[in-house]
Design goal:
heterodimer; A: 492 residues; mainly alpha; 21 helices; B: 475 residues; 20 helices; globular
């Protein structure tokens, strides 16, 4: 028996089947968040959507997502009308569960289209090893399965739109790309972090390039670009024009803390750890709530200086600039590759230094990076490094006892690799540390992952910038890695 | 290669752990509950009573309420799990008071014990079988066969969904098959004796093992060598039996009591609706009105032996590894079709050898495997496992589709496969949409079992034909 290389649709079927199987898996409060949004958009007039606060889970996504919830609620009406009552907090009937879970799975069709379109835009030949590896990596992406189909969110279709936008850009259909990206921003504003590479690329290779073509003009193309790019914003925010400040306060809540309740594996996780260690060494009495107490609120560091939102933004932008400059100066032939790298690095910069980053945001790095794996072997090696740390960092999302086995086995089968710090479940139990230091496992998970992500960030940044670096791994090892990695993944 | 194998094993564990999230047999259905409660009850009995009392009816051990009816190794296994359960929460296995005990933690615990069986016994054993097949026949399809072996939905749905420990007995039997393929008959005898002592249903596999090992001994070129081989094999088997049956070795009466529990001739010829010959015959010719129950047992025995005979004689006369696998497959189907007191789940015993044949007849065997899950659907539906069953079969089918074999099926074969699959899908679809009339509430399970029976009869003939025409290298 031989493996068929062109089994894209079979893989789509397998991943859909897997997602449906996961329906009874323990979900997070995000399930209630989305049920509440269904209720709000269905039972309240438009002008109350962003004011309603019966539930603590207020609507804090841009209007397109609200419209999307409204559309879903039109179907939900026939499934179980009681899930659409705002006061019905934590309502969770069997029909609601199936409806919400299946809606995520159904919306993933857009993601499938995005994957298909990206694979062909990148010139991956159908039926080749790469095509198979790419479909596997993206269609059965363990991160998306964790976050969307166990934890519960609607990231799949939004990444689908992102992939469609990326593929349009690679195919040189610039206006279409700008349009889809603008639509995406109106679904979930966190993708703003990816806007700089799109902006720079379009400016350089559409507006400026167009100016060189006969009959083209810089200003006319810029105008077209802006018109296309701003149209979705008008449609989206138009109906809310008189309550923009309220929406903005919902979309950008700066009263939240530097780190999320569980620390995303970024520079601030290391910073917090250093602060904790320093506080322990210096025996400073900690003032205010501890950083790992689980409350979403402002925190103060005991020893190291406190970080403000403007500092995080400054750092993010500083770290984005070099790669954007490199993208601007790259040649036309190299530009798609550089563009993808810039997307990954901008996502990673914001993940590293951003304010109140969620661990889920690492997907913004991992999914574009999966595309790069198919094009370049060297990139594949970096993708593997980030994958180990990145997917591992999602584990705290799956905290239910019944999910311990699935999360490890999913992760291992995806990575085909064992090197997990088993501290969390084995060693800490042995030493009885989980009673004395309850935050220890979480802290270690995030510190470990943070080191991995930081390492990746540094190495990959230098690599993408073209800075030569003393080769650590022999080139031979690299080659065997990427071919074996692909074979590994086909088994999934 | 190693990492791929590990990744497949992890996929298998993922699949099992997801199915574990679903409901189990007898969830929230007092007073008798289901197999889940049976397993828990055995832990309760084995922990709280002396081994000698395990199979005996008493005020502390009501055999009417899920009395132990599997051989001693199951009882010892229950005892082991019971000890662990006791250390987690003594309420799980408190005598009398724990009946029907169900909680989230308990479910997680019980599911993990099955998963442990999968990881420690079943998956390594089937990996062993795949490696041995790969080595013996140079088939070069290790990953393919391991993937399809490990992801077979029938075993996953019954063990991790419905709740049983077939993985232990099937795993031990698989280890025995691997040992035979590797030419280690003593290990095979040992592993198979353990399997037989875990579930008496392993008798389905016993005749080919017996024939093959006996043939191996007879093939010795001197009388002395023959005696040594036979002696060692017999010693291994008898010693294992003695060890496991030690608590009942005091008196013949105790042994008889256990045996009576294992082979309850007082029960009816089949339970519920099973895809076997007797259940189908019962529709047109009511067995109960024509044949006495104890006569029925003899009739069953005769039919079973006669139908299993051709393939075993062929195996004896022309001993080869391929013939051994085919003979296992044929004998298991013969037992399923004709023996006494057959359950739906015992189809898994025919599925195990069929998985070994996957490399050579992928199309036919995949049909067989999907059909085997089809015959268990009424049972799984009762447990609330309809959605995972259909999903698992779908995933399995798609995984199969990701591979293609060099040998293309002929157009006739192709038509047969298509018609069969459409027929199965139509029946499943119809049974979900059309409600059975109140006069015949069991209409759909009955249709399922008759069709299942017809297919099994076909596969019995097919298997025998393949075995008779099998060229396989003689050893």
């Amino acid at each position: 028996m031989i493996l068929k290389k062109d089994c894209f649709w079979q893989l789509v079927g397998i991943s859909t089947g897997l997602k449906i199987l996961l329906i009874p898996a323990n979900h997070s409060t995000d399930f209630e968040v989305h049920r509440n949004w269904l209720a709000i958009t269905h039972s309240l007039p438009l002008n109350r959507w962003y004011f309603e606060d019966t539930s603590e889970w207020t609507l804090d996504y841009p209007p397109f997502f609200a419209y999307f919830e409204w559309l879903l609620s039109q179907v939900a009406r026939f499934v179980d009308p009681r899930m659409l009552i705002v006061e019905n907090l934590n309502y969770e009937s069997k029909a609601t569960l199936y409806f919400q879970r299946l809606s995520v799975t159904a919306m993933d069709l857009i993601y499938v289209l995005g994957v298909r379109s990206c694979l062909s835009a990148l010139g991956v030949v159908k039926g080749s090893q790469q095509f198979f590896a790419g479909s596997l990596l993206l269609l059965l992406n363990v991160g998306l399965i964790f976050v969307d189909h166990i934890h519960f969110q609607y990231n799949g279709f939004m990444f689908g739109i992102l992939l469609l936008s990326i593929s349009a850009l690679i195919r040189q259909r610039f206006l279409w790309s700008a349009f889809t990206f603008a639509v995406l921003l109106n679904f979930k504003h966190i993708f703003l972090y990816l806007a700089p590479p799109f902006g720079v690329y379009l400016l350089r290779f559409y507006c400026l390039e167009q100016a060189n073509v006969k009959g083209g003009s810089f200003w006319r193309s810029l105008f077209k670009l802006l018109a296309v790019g701003l149209a979705p914003f008008v449609v989206s925010f138009g109906p809310f024009w008189n309550q923009l400040p309220q929406i903005m306060s919902r979309l950008f809540p700066f009263n939240r803390g530097l780190t999320h309740a569980y620390w995303a594996p970024n520079i601030w996780a290391l910073y917090n750890t250093a602060d904790k260690v320093a506080a322990n060494v210096l025996k400073t009495a900690s003032a205010g709530p501890s950083t790992t107490s689980g409350l979403v609120q402002q925190i103060d560091h005991s020893v190291l200086p406190t970080i403000t939102p403007s500092m995080t933004f400054g750092l993010t932008i500083v770290f984005m600039l070099p790669i954007l400059l490199k993208l601007f100066k790259s040649s036309k032939k190299q530009s798609p590759l550089m563009f993808l790298r810039a997307v990954v690095l901008c996502a990673c910069s914001s993940f590293m230094f951003g304010w109140h980053v969620h661990e889920k945001a690492i997907l913004m790095c991992l999914i574009p990076l999966s595309l790069l794996t198919l094009v370049n072997r060297e990139d594949a090696r970096y993708a593997y490094i980030l994958g180990i740390a990145g997917y591992f960092s999602l584990f705290p999302l799956l905290f239910d006892i019944d999910l311990y086995v699935p999360r490890y086995s999913f992760y291992l089968s995806y990575m085909g690799f064992i090197a997990i710090p088993l501290y969390e479940h084995i060693i800490s139990r042995l030493l009885g540390l989980h009673i004395r230091l309850p935050f220890m496992p979480l802290l270690l998970t995030s510190t470990y992952s943070a080191l991995g992500v930081v390492y990746f960030f540094g190495r990959y940044y230098l690599y993408a910038m073209g800075v030569s670096w003393p080769k650590v791994a022999a080139p031979k090892a690299t080659a065997t890695y990427s071919s074996s990695a692909k074979r590994k993944r086909k088994t999934k | 290669m190693k990492s791929e194998i590990l990744a497949i094993a992890c996929v298998a564990v993922s699949l099992r752990s997801i199915v574990s999230l679903y409901s189990f047999s007898g969830f929230d259905s007092p007073p008798m509950y289901g197999d889940y409660e049976a397993q828990r009850h055995w832990q309760e009995v084995t922990i709280n009573l002396e081994p000698g009392q395990w199979y005996t009816n008493s005020s502390d051990n009501d055999l009417q309420y899920w009395g132990l009816d599997y051989p001693p190794l199951t009882a010892h296994h229950s005892y082991l799990i019971g000890r662990i359960a006791e250390s987690i929460d003594p309420r799980f296995i408190e005598l009398h008071k724990s009946r029907g005990f169900q909680s989230r933690l308990h479910k997680s615990f019980m599911r993990l014990t099955v998963l442990t069986g999968d990881i420690l016994i079943y998956l390594p054993a089937i990996l062993g079988v795949c490696i041995c097949i790969d080595k013996s026949f140079q088939s070069k399809s290790l990953l393919f066969s391991f993937m399809l072996f490990a992801a077979y939905p029938g075993q996953v749905l019954i063990d991790n969904g419905h709740f049983q420990y077939n993985n232990v007995s099937l795993g031990l039997a698989a280890a025995a098959i691997a040992a035979i393929l590797h030419g280690k008959q003593y290990i095979a005898a040992f592993a198979f004796t353990l399997a037989l002592n875990y579930k008496q249903m392993e008798l389905y596999h016993s005749i080919p093992f017996f024939t093959y090992i006996l043939g191996e001994c007879l093939a010795a070129n001197s009388l002395r060598l023959f005696a040594v081989k036979l002696g060692i094999t017999a010693t291994i088997v008898l010693a294992t039996f003695c060890l496991l049956w030690y608590p009942w070795s005091g008196s013949l009466h105790a042994v008889a009591e256990v045996l009576h529990r294992l082979f309850p001739l007082g029960r009816t010829v089949f339970e519920d609706k099973v895809s076997n010959f007797w259940c189908s015959l019962n529709i047109i010719w009511k067995l109960k009105q024509h044949v006495l129950n104890n006569h029925m047992a003899l009739v069953c025995l005769a039919f079973t032996l006669i139908s299993a005979l051709p393939t075993n004689i062929t195996l004896y006369r022309k001993r080869c590894k391929m013939g051994f696998l085919l003979s296992l497959f044929n004998t298991a189907i013969a037992f399923f079709l004709f023996s006494f007191q057959v359950h739906e789940k015992t189809i898994l015993l025919a599925a195990l050898p069929s998985l070994c044949l996957l490399t050579w007849w992928p199309n036919e065997i995949i049909l067989f495997l999907e059909m085997s899950v089809f015959t268990m659907l009424p049972l799984l539906q009762r447990d609330g496992l309809l959605v995972p069953s259909l999903e698992c079969v779908l995933i399995y089918h798609l995984i199969c589709q990701c591979f293609y074999s060099e040998t293309r099926p002929s157009s006739g074969q192709k038509a047969f496969l298509y018609i069969s699959k459409i027929c199965l899908i139509v029946i499943v679809g119809a049974s979900l949409i059309i409600k059975a009339p109140s006069r015949y509430p069991d209409l759909w399970p009955l249709i399922t079992s008759v069709i299942g029976c017809a297919y099994l009869a076909f596969f019995l003939l097919w298997g025998n034909f393949q075995h008779l025409t099998c060229k396989g290298e003689a050893l």
